[in-house]
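Consider the following assembly input.
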Amino acid sequence: MLKTLYDKLWDSHVVRADTDGTTLLYIDRHLVHEVTSPQAFEGLREAHRPLWRTSANLAVADHNVPTTSRAEGIADPTSRLQVETLDANAKSFGLTYFDMNDKRQGIVHVIGPEQGATLPGMTVVCGDSHTSTHGAFGALAHGIGTSEVEHVLATQTLLAKKSKSMLVQVDGALPAGVTAKDIVLAVIGKIGTAGGTGYAIEFGGSTIRSLSMEGRMTVCNMAIEAGARAGMVGVDETTIDYIKGRPFAPKGDDWDKAVAYWRTLHTDPGAKFDLVVTLNAAEIRPQVTWGTSPEMVTTIDGRVPDPETEKDPVRRDAMEKALVYMNLAPNTRIEDIKIDKVFIGSCTNSRIEDLRAAAQVVRGRHRAANVKLAMVVPGSGLVKEQAEREGLDQIFKAAGFEWREPGCSMCLAMNADRLEPGERCASTSNRNFEGRQGQGGRTHLVSPAMAAAAGIAGHFVDVRGL
Ligand SMILES: CC(C)[C@H](C(=O)O)[C@@H](O)C(=O)O
Ligand code: SF4
């Protein structure tokens, strides 16, 4: 039988399947962070349960860590308690753990692949919705809730039901200045934030094949924002080259055997998907969100839409509400929207290529006077180190951008980095709902190059013209 990549990943992890489709799946890799793990560890402790397979777990603190003056510790007591609780749990349960001062520390979805802890053919879970990122490696990866975190820690399995399959096929050469972030925002603009509900999405086509692993991770990262449970890309030489030599990757004979297996991890030609969506890369332009959902997106040469032209009353209401929150008038040119802050970071766009793309734009230029703060937050200590080797930190600092320590930072308002009420931000993160970056803050999702360009111009601007 012809199989999709999703079928192959699913079938190879079934421990037991009931007639109603409820399936117990074996989990190969469990990533742990401080927000969704405390109750899970507490549950194990109360039940006197050990971990089923300690070496399957990798833990890191990311959401609550400060991105400045880390040596002084964490000022906020709630954040400090969460991180200290993970410190203590990792120690008492014996998990591999990168603490806040370890240079391998970073955002959980950046460090998994960086360490080679995320490998093709694996099932990867984490108590975090953006676990879909890891699907870029030909893995079945998705977020789980805290009670499931406890279940995985105790049994190395998860109860699941198979989703339907969707292929998002993107073909053609990407125009200059258009990036993986623009592809995925364009996909969400097309299918909507509910378009992927009930599906696992495979991204394919020549455009996706030509993306680096960083780009593929950006695309899979936001599959969850399209409503899908998982995003994935088939394995090819780009995947294998990325993994080779990473600390957790197999070595010697094991490497050869693994690679032979990994090369089978793609959809068989002719295998059927429940739904196929196609995009032409040549038609994708730099994207900017204007509202409070990633599907409220348009192109840099576009305008804020006018709710008057929307016939569906539910959608019209949502648009009106979003425009009030965003303080935007219908028909405003996107290029005329002024910004107060820039955030370059998050598990969507904080990898070395993202930082290179942003640095290329700001090199020799300076932050606009109306931009109060432009911050660059590398996804991990190792990304930071690499960027510094390449002199990117100097380029950013010379341009008036702040160079920070790794973490989730201003992607969400769970640490010291946040927007003040009414502030408008060009952000490379993945969510723009009300209050996401701070109460009353206004988020516009863009690519790293577009965020950098907005920081220089003081308003959104087309990177293709720079
Ligand atoms: C805190 C965590 C549970 C959450 C998630 O699951 O995604 C966060 O990472 C986010 O991006 O909103
Ligand atoms: S960077 Fe943002 S989206 Fe990613 S895990 Fe952290 S909070 Fe969630």
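The radius of gyration is 21 Å. Ask yourself how this observation constrains the way the partners meet.
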